[in-house]
Amino acid sequence: MDIKDILRRFEEIGDPSLVVGMARFGIKTKKAYGVKMPVLKAMAKQIGKDHARALGLWAIDSRETRILATLVDDVDRLTEGQMEEWASQFDYWEICDQAIMNLFGPSRFAHKKAIEWCGREEEFVKRAGFVLVAWMGVHDKSSRDEVFEAFLPVIERAVTDDRKNVMKGVNWALRQIGKRNLRLNKRAIAVSERISRLDSKAAHWIASDALRELKSAKIVERLEKRAKKRKSFN
User: Fold this and answer.
1) Closest CA to 19 of 72, 73, 92
2) Which domains does the chain have, with CATH numbers?
3) What tens digit of pLDDT does each residue of 195-234 get?
4) What is the CA radius of gyration of the chain?
């Protein structure tokens, strides 16, 4: 399936009514066909990993081609330069998050770019930094607590940024750090309580949303069970 075939397929199966619905959720892109994510994932599986095709798909500025590019690219051939180029072109939250989840997060550059991007000013590059932290909070099973503790001061410095896309990325990172284990849960709760006292609507929202989840009986019970299981193995 070459790129012409892919575009033809998008034209055949795209649903314009979905594009209207996407706009209501902040997915506003120059071009969208209205293809659902399960269909894009099925197409990616059919295509297989293909770095050159991914670059060609990304060069076509549409929602579906760019998401598909993140799905079919070969993470082993990903470079920092490509990450910077693509991140500079993020212009809505979905493509930012899909790139992180499908490609950037699993890459060997994830931690480095998270550190760099969390300090950037561009709205979606900054969001990408915090989404990388959130991704690592879930999927990076080998890093020690200190790796994630180092991001807590970074989060505290960013909580007054009231841009919606940044605000949600910061909140996501804070919650995922706090759900790794009991120790980080306590650290994340302490940070949340501290930022809740700031004179900032963004900080108040981030803190209240994080505390609601991190203090919930469901999360605490899960972390306690995980701690007991880990202790029994040692």
Assistant:
1) 92
2) 1-77 (no CATH), 79-234 (1.25.10)
3) 999 999 999 999 999 999 999 999 999 999 999 988 776 6
4) 19
Mean pLDDT of 60-75: 97
**pTM for this prediction:** 0.95
44, amino acid identity: A
* SS3 labels along 122-169: CHHHHHHHHHHHHHHHHHCCCCCHHHHHCCHHHHHHHCCCCCHHHHHH
Q: Which two tokens stand for residue 40?
A: 């894009």
CA distance 117 to 88: 11
- pLDDT per residue over 139-197, tens digit each? 999 999 999 999 999 999 999 999 999 999 999 999 999 999 999 999 999 999 999 99
Between CA 186 and CA 72 the distance in angstroms is 39
Neighbours of 164 (CB within 10 A): 14
Check: CB of residue 179 under 8 Å from CB of residue 214.
yes
- Give mean pLDDT, residues 104-132: 98
Could you give the angle at the alpha carbon of 162 between the alpha carbons of 156 and 166, nearest 5°?
A: 70
Cα–Cα separations (whole angstroms), residue 124 to 68, 77, 94, 168, 176: 19, 23, 10, 11, 19
